[in-house]
């Protein structure tokens, strides 16, 4: 159920799209504000409290990725959605690296937008991955968002830690993509088309590989999902 008091900041320089987004958000019960300039968007985000930010990538003064990085540094728990060009996987990956919680590709349907917003707002503040996980010789620290092995450390995003925690908790079985979308991303509609899980898993595998050659393996079981193995 959506939080009708949730405050959402939209940073988008296309005036027609910005007005349309604000109208849709207000119609769906949200307290929505919008700005068309990147620097102004960052200033508002840092000075005020919002439950969610929706950021376009290409903006005057300051791009969406830079805003995302700055906000994430000052407000680690801020919920952020990046709007990307249709099919731009590079933008999606860059957005996640900048600290975005999710992305939405233009053009998008209103249903898809609301589904993603509701999921992010349900997810905000949840601490699934605050635990400590020891697996395959790597220590995953949910409190500090770090993974350590033999003196080497890599930084984790909150979502990456959530994935590790969930897969470790249910390591005796295969975890489907729909289950991850429901339990880790809090999607109410798990049939929605998204590559979010695949991209996060890919990034997480690279970080694990950089720490330990024989660390925990996130196996892809074709047509079924993922399973975490401790490694040899």
Q: Structural class of the secondary structure composition?
A: alpha/beta
Q: How big is the Rg? A: 18 Å
What's the story with the biggest beta sheet? 5 strands, parallel
Strand content: 15-25%
- What best-fitting shape do the alpha-carbon axes yield? globular
Overall tally of domains = 2
How much helix, percentage-wise, in residues?
40-55%
Q: Span from first to last CA?
A: 44 Å
The CATH superfamily of the largest domain is known as Response regulator
Structure description:
There is one protein chain. Helices cover 40% and strands 22% of the residues. With 232 residues, it is α/β, with parallel strands linked by helices. The chain folds into 2 domains: 7-123, Rossmann fold; 132-229, Arc Repressor Mutant, subunit A. Helix 2 (38-47) packs parallel to helix 3 (64-74). The N and C termini lie far apart (44 Å). The mean pLDDT is 87.
Task: Summarize the entry for a quick read.
The protein has 232 residues and is of the alpha/beta class. It has 2 domains: 7-123, Response regulator (Rossmann fold), CATH 3.40.50; 132-229, Winged helix-like DNA-binding domain superfamily/Winged helix DNA-binding domain (Arc Repressor Mutant, subunit A, Orthogonal Bundle). The protein has helices at residues 15-27, 38-47, 64-74, 89-98, 110-123, 158-169, 177-183, 196-211; strands spanning 7-11, 31-35, 52-56, 80-85, 102-106, 132-135, 138-141, 146-149, 152-155, 217-221, 225-229.
